Structures are given as structure tokens and as C-alpha cells.
Amino acid sequence: MKLAICPGTFDPVTNGHLDVITRAARHFEKLIVAVAANPEKSPLFKTEERLAMLNECLSDKDNVEVIAFDSLLVDLAHEYGSCAIIKGLRAMSDFEFEFQMAQLNRQMDEQIETFFVMSSPEYTYLSSSGIKEVASYGGQLSYLVPEPVETRLLEKFGKGREKPEAAGKE
Ligand code: PNS
Questions:
Q1: Which of 71, 74, 126, 163 could form an SS bridge with 16, CB 3.0 to 4.6 Å?
Q2: Lateral strand order in the sheet of 3-8
Q3: Is the pTM of this model over 0.85?
């Protein structure tokens, strides 16, 4: 089976992530969306919350499965028998970090290929950290994130007067 893994922190998932996932899923029999626990990034949302939001947003995609992981990505790929990693690329600013990760992963297993999906133009400016900042000040979120994510951001930040201390960066 042609299976690929799309990893990320997804804190929270944005319309840009969903665009990349949807487009990538058309080219593989199965796409595993892998949510990294990433405690060093102090995520705003717990792993279970990030999984729940992704599951709600992707419930109509039959060949997409959402899982959590806390290991090396190449080890996860071995576990699932996947030889493809999917990453989104927004701008040149993403390139250096993504290039480094792809090379590291390749060094660990050259059979696993990283494929980059270019962000659609309307999402090139979107980032989870930007969205958290907009949410923290009570800004308009509806064009940036799907409805289940907007609801949870509003729950976290209320009307945006107070920033929760745990608001991590991604
Ligand atoms: O959405 P992000 O934060 O850019 O995702 C980063 C992620 C989760 C893909 C990356 O941190 C990762 O692959 N973590 C798993 C640990 C690992 O394999 N590290 C070695 C490659 S850098």
C-alpha cells in the first residue's frame, strides 16, 4: 500500500495544514497525520485536544488517519511501513529548517523520502503561532482556522483579554 506520513505539532491545525493534508491524501492510498507530543514547544493544546480537532476536521476523509507519536519520525515510518514523509512549505523562511530535517531523516534512513507540498497562495501567511496571537487579542479567526478550532480557541482565550500562560510557540 502507498502510505505516507504527514507529521506536525498542529497546535492548532490551521486551514493551511488542512489544505496540504487534503492535497497530499489524493496521491496516496493512505495518509497518516501524525501529531507530535512536542512538550519542548509547550503547546497550548494538549495532545488529545490536537488529535480531537484534527479528527473532527478530517472525518470525511476515508484514507486519512490521525495518530499521536512521541518518537523519531523515521521510527514511526518503520512502524507503519511508510517510505514517504509529507511536509508543507509556505515560504523561503520554512526552507532552511525543513531542508535540515529532511536531510537528518534521510541520513537516518535513505529509503524514506520527504515530499514537500507547496502551500496554496491564500495560506502562505498562516501559522499556528500567528493564529494563537490573533486569538489572544480577540481577533477574527473564521478565515484562518476551521470551525472546531475556532470554538476551542475561543474557549481557551475567552474574549481575548487574557493570554493563558501556557500559550506556546509553534
Ligand atoms: O509542525 P512542526 O512543529 O514543524 O513539526 C515538527 C515535527 C513534529 C515534524 C518534528 O519535530 C519531528 O519530526 N519530530 C519527531 C522527532 C524527530 O524525528 N526528530 C528528528 C528530525 S528533526
A1: 126
A2: 64-69, 30-36, 3-8, 84-89, 113-118
A3: yes
